[in-house]
């Protein structure tokens, strides 16, 4: 905190020391308070409020910083009218920022004009809305929101009044708090601000999250003077670096010119002066023609013009030149050869220099594209800190679009692209609540030689699995035990749950029979499907059977005279390609997508908040009175939990779902059971 004489505001800053943070088991509490007034009572009120919020936080009976900070906000709302007179007049002058950090969890709340930024991965991102709030006509409930987020080792944070950002650019602030420790950052800013003579006060807190050092390691920082001085800011250092690069780049040519100037003083140059004046141009021309001729195979030359040349005279001049050259001493000849070699190297290097410039430009463009992607990733992460998932999703989408345009020709580029891909996926997992885990194996019937599980149903506390070779097993998921069901010569092909006491099964010839769980007996029924349905489902003691162009509703299916009607009365093309039917009052179909029907008519159903579209290989599961629809997206190896309004709430991703089928959800919706070949797998759905 830096207070100016005759400042127009009262400022107080508090940050708990290490001892208090550790002993309280509540972490480090901090607060910044600014009241825009010169009155003495404003000073008194500021001190009283800081003392109150500190005491309320550390007197909290819970060790959870979020709950403790919420109590601080509630108490401040109640006590504020007693601390300040005429609250409606004072509120526009009142600004407060409080927060707490425990372990890697941060909780924040604010009222008024403050700045809060997180520096991560060389990016500076706002973690509270930056727009100035209209403080007029506010209710007395000022601390009405709480921001909760997670921090990582290496993160730097700065919380300050807006006045600090009137004097320093964001880039300078970012580099300072990332490069220096908090004490050195504070010293640096103070030194620069002391040069300002205006009546402005500054309040800020700078925090840095560090990993616990190893026993033998002691964190150290370079002296502040090695980084910056009060006169040379980071911006000056950047400009100096840019100018230095330019000077070093252009300084080669003067050296070459000096070398050529020295060559003019060699014996070869003196020998040329000894030649007759009218012979010098002729020798130079002949020499040039000889060199151009020798480079014809290396460089493209313009089309030759037809010129009449006296070959005899030209040959005589060339011969004369070489005779003169042979008379020169050994040192002069070496210098001449060196000049020719340098000229040849210079010409050869021209295309290489062009190639280098192109590569440099390509690398620069790639770096700029990578930076653009990283910026969007950082903004998405910042949005997640204060639970703005819509904003995070928007920035993530822009990052993904920019990521698709990244070139991958070079190995080094591909490595950076792979790293960015992992970063994007990490943010996407948090935005879309994606859990990546290995599904647990429940029972593997392959060990006893059973073929692939063709069908699985849930009845009461048991699962029933029907194999492709006609074996039926009763399974207890609780203790992972199972036992075969004696079929008495029957060969069921499909099993469905009728109620807690009975299964309904169909045979290859489309006949229906029941299996009573308590009595363990089978009974044939009168109902027979005229043709094998694509799929059928039981709801409210009725069978809904899906055929190529109909949905049949069968009432009293186990009676002597079942009633069959055509339930569907919408467009026939809506049923094209349908494969599965589920009923919960509405009728749900999968056909490469998901369709919903109510009273025989198609209704609108679309999924929202999903990171990518569904594949064309789906299974769904739900039950009456459930709010959620469970979607097995086989080709994308994921299980989605969505509300029946279409909002995707969670996603579970594992490779075992690639070949999975027969989705069943437990009664408490805490477990998902599926089959993969002859194995039954289980997924824990309790994570959120």
The span between the termini is 41 Å
Q: Which percent range fits the helix content?
A: 25-40%
| Uncertain ranges | 131-138, 214-260, 262-311
Tally the structural domains: 4
Strand content is: 25-35%
CATH architecture level-2 label of the largest domain: 7 Propeller
Sketch the major β-sheet.
5 strands, antiparallel
Number of helices: 14
Rounded mean pLDDT score: 80
Strand order of the largest sheet: 1-2-3-4-7
CATH fold-type name of the largest domain: Methylamine Dehydrogenase, Chain H
Tell me the Rg in angstroms.
40 Å
**Would you count the extended β strands for me?**
34
The name of the CATH superfamily of the largest domain reads YVTN repeat-like/Quinoprotein amine dehydrogenase
Q: Helices and strands: which structural class?
A: alpha+beta
Supply the key terms.
Phosphatase 2c, domain 1; 14 helices; five-stranded mixed beta sheet; 688 residues; 4 domains; flat; five-stranded antiparallel beta sheet
Please, could you describe this protein's structure?
The protein is of the alpha+beta class and 688 residues long. The chain has a five-stranded antiparallel beta sheet. The chain has 14 helices and 34 strands. The chain is flat. The protein folds into four domains: 10-235, 4-Layer Sandwich (Phosphatase 2c, domain 1), CATH 3.60.40; 252-328, no CATH class; 353-431, no CATH class; 440-684, Methylamine Dehydrogenase, Chain H (7 Propeller). The two termini are 41 Å apart.
């Amino acid at each position: 905190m830096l207070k100016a004489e005759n400042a127009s505001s009262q400022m107080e800053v508090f940050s708990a020391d290490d001892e208090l943070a550790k002993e309280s088991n509540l972490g480090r509490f901090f607060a910044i308070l600014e009241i825009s007034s010169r009155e003495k009572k404003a000073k008194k009120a500021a001190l009283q409020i800081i003392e109150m919020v500190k005491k309320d936080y550390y007197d909290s009976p819970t060790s959870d910083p979020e709950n403790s900070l919420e109590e601080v906000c509630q108490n401040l709302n109640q006590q504020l009218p007693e601390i300040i007179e005429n609250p409606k007049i004072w509120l526009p002058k009142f600004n407060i920022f409080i927060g707490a950090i425990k372990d890697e969890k941060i909780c924040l709340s604010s009222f008024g004009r403050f700045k809060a930024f997180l520096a991560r991965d060389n990016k500076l991102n706002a973690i509270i809305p930056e727009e100035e709030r209209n403080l007029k006509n506010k209710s007395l409930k000022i601390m009405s929101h709480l921001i909760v987020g997670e921090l990582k080792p290496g993160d730097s944070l700065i919380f300050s009044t807006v006045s600090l950002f009137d004097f320093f650019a964001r880039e300078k602030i970012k580099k300072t708090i990332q490069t220096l420790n908090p004490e050195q950052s504070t010293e640096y800013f103070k030194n620069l601000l002391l040069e300002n003579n205006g009546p402005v006060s500054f309040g800020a807190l700078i925090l840095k999250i560090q990993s616990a050092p190893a026993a033998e390691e002691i964190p150290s920082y370079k002296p502040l003077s090695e980084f910056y001085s009060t006169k040379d800011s980071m911006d000056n250092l950047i400009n100096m670096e840019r100018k230095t690069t330019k000077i070093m780049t252009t300084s080669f040519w003067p050296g070459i010119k000096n070398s050529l100037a020295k060559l003019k003083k060699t014996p070869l140059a003196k020998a040329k002066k000894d030649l007759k004046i009218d012979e010098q141009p002729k020798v130079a021309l002949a020499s040039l023609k000889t060199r151009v001729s020798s480079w014809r195979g290396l460089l493209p030359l313009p089309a030759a013009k037809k010129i009449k040349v006296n070959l005899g005279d030209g040959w005589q001049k060339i011969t004369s030149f070489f005779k003169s050259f042979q008379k020169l001493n050994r040192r002069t000849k070496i210098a001449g050869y060196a000049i020719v070699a340098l000229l040849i190297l210079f010409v050869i290097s021209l295309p290489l220099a062009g190639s280098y410039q192109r590569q440099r430009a390509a690398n620069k463009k790639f770096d700029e594209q990578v930076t653009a992607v990283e910026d969007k990733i950082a903004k998405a992460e910042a949005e997640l800190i204060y639970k703005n998932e819509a904003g995070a999703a928007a920035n993530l989408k822009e990052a993904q679009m920019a990521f698709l345009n990244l070139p991958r020709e070079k190995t080094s580029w591909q490595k950076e692209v792979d790293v960015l891909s992992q970063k994007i996926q990490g943010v996407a997992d948090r935005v879309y609540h994606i859990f990546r885990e290995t599904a647990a194996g429940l029972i593997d019937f392959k060990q006893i030689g059973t073929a692939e599980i063709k069908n699985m149903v849930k009845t009461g506390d048991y699962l029933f699995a029907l194999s492709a070779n006609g074996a039926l097993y009763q399974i207890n998921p609780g203790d992972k035990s199972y036992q075969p069901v004696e079929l008495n010569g029957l060969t069921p092909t499909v099993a469905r749950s009728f109620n807690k006491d009975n299964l309904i099964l169909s045979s290859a010839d489309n006949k229906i029979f029941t299996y009573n769980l308590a009595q363990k007996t089978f009974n044939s029924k009168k109902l027979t499907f005229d043709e094998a349905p694509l799929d059928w489902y039981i709801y409210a003691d009725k069978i809904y059977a899906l055929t190529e162009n109909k949905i049949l509703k069968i009432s009293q299916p186990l009676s002597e005279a079942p009633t069959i009607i055509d339930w569907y009365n919408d467009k026939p093309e809506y049923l094209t390609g349908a494969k599965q039917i589920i009923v919960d009052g509405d009728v749900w179909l999968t056909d490469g997508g998901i369709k919903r029907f109510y009273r025989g008519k198609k209704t609108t159903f679309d999924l929202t908040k999903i990171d990518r579209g569904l594949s064309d290989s789906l299974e769904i599961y739900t039950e009456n009175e459930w709010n959620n629809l469970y979607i097995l997206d086989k080709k994308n190896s994921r299980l989605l939990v969505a509300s029946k309004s279409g909002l995707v709430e969670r996603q579970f991703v594992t490779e075992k779902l690639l070949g999975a089928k027969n989705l069943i959800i437990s009664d408490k919706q805490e477990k998902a059971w599926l089959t993969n070949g002859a194995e039954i797998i289980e997924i824990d759905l309790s994570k959120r």
